[in-house]
């Protein structure tokens, strides 16, 4: 599963704990006894887009009037091609967790030119967040964990374009639930089991969880994103020392 809220998470259930601190992953107990969750996390997911919209597009001191303002921005971004005309965003606005565990990492736009406008910058932010989450999925694969699809939750599941970007960058089918509030839904399921409405988490999930939509990757976009991801993946190591130097100024 993938969640893009203020930050961002990718998680997968496991039968046995996996300890992989060198990959920046976290292992926590599952709500189902005897099960575990492997998690990769980024610090600036939706907050990267929120920062750009409030500080750059609206301007400091102005306030967001409604969620419709974001939807208007998304509609503006839709015609922009995959990989944002060769523009990459590193979403390290608060440092980064998986896979770097580096509080001194810093955000950046790479490839910026006079051809780029705000719609390109906006799309690059959306793509950069998903590139960062793809790194966690790649770390899962290095541990021998195969992922066949991704259920997406949170703010990143509310917008059609961002859902498609996830499918294309992950190159996996994206499953959409009727609700995007995954944490609250999970808490409700756990509570329902606790008070005896259901006998187990498994039974509760079978009764309550539904998939309303399945989004498939666009092969043309997948090819573009695979090339962009290889560049994205190499940028942190090239810029790490500069990030650390800037953080000390």
TrEMBL record:
Residues 1-194 form the Carbohydrate kinase FGGY C-terminal domain. One of its GO terms (molecular function) is kinase activity. Keywords: Kinase, Transferase. PROSITE patterns: FGGY_KINASES_2. GO terms for biological process: carbohydrate metabolic process. This is Carbohydrate kinase FGGY C-terminal domain-containing protein. It comes from marine sediment metagenome.
């Amino acid at each position: 599963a993938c969640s893009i809220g203020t930050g961002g998470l990718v998680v997968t259930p496991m039968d046995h704990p996996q300890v992989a601190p060198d990959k920046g992953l976290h292992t926590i107990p599952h709500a189902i006894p005897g099960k575990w969750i492997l998690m990769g996390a980024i610090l600036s997911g939706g907050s990267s887009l929120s920062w750009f919209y409030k500080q750059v597009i609206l301007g400091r001191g102005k306030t967001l009037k409604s969620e419709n303002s974001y939807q208007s921005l998304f509609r503006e971004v839709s015609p922009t091609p995959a990989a944002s005309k060769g523009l990459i965003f590193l979403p390290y606005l608060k440092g980064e967790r998986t896979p770097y565990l580096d509080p001194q990492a810093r955000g950046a736009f790479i490839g910026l030119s006079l051809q780029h406008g705000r719609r390109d910058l906006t799309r690059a932010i959306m793509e950069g967040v998903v590139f960062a989450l793809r790194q966690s999925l790649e770390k899962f694969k290095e541990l021998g964990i195969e992922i066949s699809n991704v259920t997406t939750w949170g703010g990143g599941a509310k917008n059609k374009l961002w859902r498609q970007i996830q499918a294309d960058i992950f190159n996996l089918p994206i499953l959409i639930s009727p609700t995007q509030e995954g944490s609250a839904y999970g808490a409700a399921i756990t509570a329902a089991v606790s008070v005896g409405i259901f006998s187990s988490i498994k039974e509760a999930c079978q009764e309550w969880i539904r998939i309303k939509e399945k989004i498939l990757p666009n092969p043309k976009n997948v090819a573009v994103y695979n090339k962009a991801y290889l560049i994205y993946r190499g940028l942190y190591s090239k810029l790490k020392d500069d990030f650390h130097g800037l953080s000390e100024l």
